[in-house]
Amino acid sequence: MLSVRSFITLSSLLLLWLPIVSTGQTFTSENTHFKLETVTTGLEHPWSLAFLPDGSVLVTERAGRLRVIQNGELLTQAVRDLPSLAVSGQGGLLDVLLHPDFQENRTLFLSYAHSSRKGMTTRVARAVIENGQLKEVVVIFEALPRSNTSRHFGGRMAFDASGYLYISVGDRGEMDRAQDTQDDAGGVHRITVNGKPASGNPGLDDKGTKDTLFTWGNRNIQGMTVHPESGDIWTHEHGPRGGDEINILTAGTNYGWPEITYGIGYSGLPITLDTAKEGMAQPLHYWDPSIAPSGMAFYTGSEFPEWQGNLFVGALKLRKLVRLEIENGRVTNEEDLLTNLKERIRDVRAGPDGELWLLTDSPEGKVYRVVPAQ
């Protein structure tokens, strides 16, 4: 088996050969200077990316295509034989995540919106990728009940150290569903790679809770990452007008939506007057006004030693990259970056080359690498 260190080293060497174009602009952080390198352009609302062992990069387009960047070029032919999916509103092809043993089994996971006569929902499929084609496609998760809305699908995924898969499902724009533990909407689900409930899930001992649910009271999680030291799953979620949150997931925790929130309704009227209630978790950090966060990653590379351990979050509404310094589970400093770029940042990933990778959400979306200015 190829070790994680060997995997990263191999990917790093191969990625060094990617032909890239610098924006030519130097950006300033509080403690360093950096530039953006354009890896590729011309993506239709890219949503997520994943790094393959051979140095290639997979990118999902919300419009329903899985694309490949190879040797620095965006291949014209998209990956074939994706599962049936629906592109409507905020729904489409969403996250892509590699199996922890991808080097051996070529298995990946896709989250996406799916439609039937009963409405739309969030699904996750497992598949094997070979020669630009998906094979052995199996749906391993489907959020029920379905809904006629086309928003708040969630769809972010992550693996923990035990090999369990975490999947976020939004409240589908029907906020009271997030407090119903017999409803899959408005929470995070934890399953095995075969779609079974993970050991230790709260619902396995509580008939009033769905057996795949890990947390609930979550409005619409669009950022999920693993803490590099503790192994905890960190998430952020969209509030309405204000109240975007960062949370650390713990089993059986109710994160409060819509019973408590630091945001207000889009009408300008309160959703609730409460920001805290017994039995409901407080966020680690929140934004008011809303930044519309999407994508998040801890920085652990060597290119920017000043950023070691910092958490980076993309912002759609306020079009920026947010850098957060974390100490003892608390945000001690927050810095806004790339505010002059004026692009919606959909995803943030820590690349195997020790640099940050960004996706911009637009009809002509881009893939950027953040590199030292020198």
Structure description:
This protein is globular. With 374 residues, it is mainly beta. The chain has two helices and 26 strands.
Main sheet, how many strands, which sense, barrel? Answer: 5 strands, antiparallel
Average pLDDT for all residues: 94
Order of helices and strands: HEEEEEEEHEEEEEEEEEEEEEEEEEEE
Structure annotation, total helices: 2
| Shape estimate | globular
Amount of helix: under 10%
For this entry, give a set of tags.
single chain; 374 residues; mainly beta; 5-stranded antiparallel sheet; 5-stranded mixed sheet; 2 helices; 26 strands; 43% strand; disordered N terminus
In short, what is this structure?
Helix content is 4%, strand content 43%. By secondary structure, it is mostly beta strands.
Walk me through the topology.
Blueprint: H1 4-15, E1 21-28, E2 33-43, E3 46-51, E4 57-61, E5 65-70, E6 73-74, E7 93-98, H2 102-105, E8 107-116, E9 119-130, E10 133-142, E11 157-159, E12 165-169, E13 187-191, E14 213-216, E15 221-226, E16 233-237, E17 244-248, E18 253-254, E19 285-287, E20 293-298, E21 311-315, E22 320-327, E23 330-337, E24 345-350, E25 356-360, E26 365-372
Parallel strand pairs: 14-18
Antiparallel strand pairs: 1-2, 2-26, 3-4, 4-5, 5-6, 7-8, 8-9, 9-10, 11-12, 12-13, 13-14, 15-16, 16-17, 17-19, 20-21, 21-22, 22-23, 24-25, 25-26
